Please model this.
Amino acid sequence: MQKLKSISIFIVCLAIVLASSLMLVGCGGDDNKIRLNEVTHSIFYAPLYAAANLGYFEDEGLEVTIESATGSDASMTALLSGSADVVLVGPETVVYSQGTKDSPVVFGQLTQKDGSFFVSRDQVSEFTLDDLKGTTIIAGRQGGMPAMTLEYIIEQAGMTIGTNTANGEVNLRTDVAFPMIGSEFITSGCEYCTLFEPTATNLQKEGNGYVLDAVGEFSGYLPYTVFATKQSFLDEKSEQAEKFLRAVQKGYKYISTQSSLLVAQALAPSFAGMTIEDLQIAVEQYLAIDAWCSSPVMTEESFNKMMEIINSTTTEEQYNVTYSQAVDNTIANKLA
Model:
């Protein structure tokens, strides 16, 4: 009797162990979990949300959680501290982080143009960069890609950055934290700011400004937002990184081939505060400027343009980071 009891207990224990193992296999275990930290939550990153909402990550056997930060520096802190596996950031942050232990690298590019929009206090017909002369514009934090890109295109247009607006200088404010730009614009009296969607459209809907042209119309192509991770993650979990990037590519394909209505409906779960019509408008705006990358490969040419922008707008120090140090296209090349 005691022997039968022992056998029964063993069978029960074995069943529990097998069930637990099957559960781990079924959900992929921790190996297939990816913690993504995004620089902010914006329709500008639509291929990512399409991948999440249409089940493309699940199709690849991944469990992806997305957490929003308040700027690329905060996202990079999350990566370096170990609270994120992958970050969606401006590539300049990867440049700034070179030399740290287990330095981060870019393994896929998502956007290829500046995704912010000029927002004016007063309605402006047929906006041009010349309209910025003698005005103040809030452009994000110093050293961030939005502020540096804006400074670059203003200077390329022959204007001078400075505080003497009476003499036509453009007062470029870089003292406002990224998530506070909209509220600072409303209360400060500044003539312009740059905002991403959906913030820009929401501000206009509330009667606090007018959305003008995309900054990307003036900046041209440049690597603007990328997926980055530690080199150790690519070495140890290259399969998961490849699955992740492949799912995002499926998201891009859906956005670039389906109607803006279907795309808006796919994005809606990620933007509860926006109507389908607002989402359609934003998607069409980004498609019109060719904001999203058809290939996840960051080219050396685009990297060099980014370095030119960084070093031409940063007076504190010059960065000598090379393409091979900051970019690992091993996975992106396979998918391309």
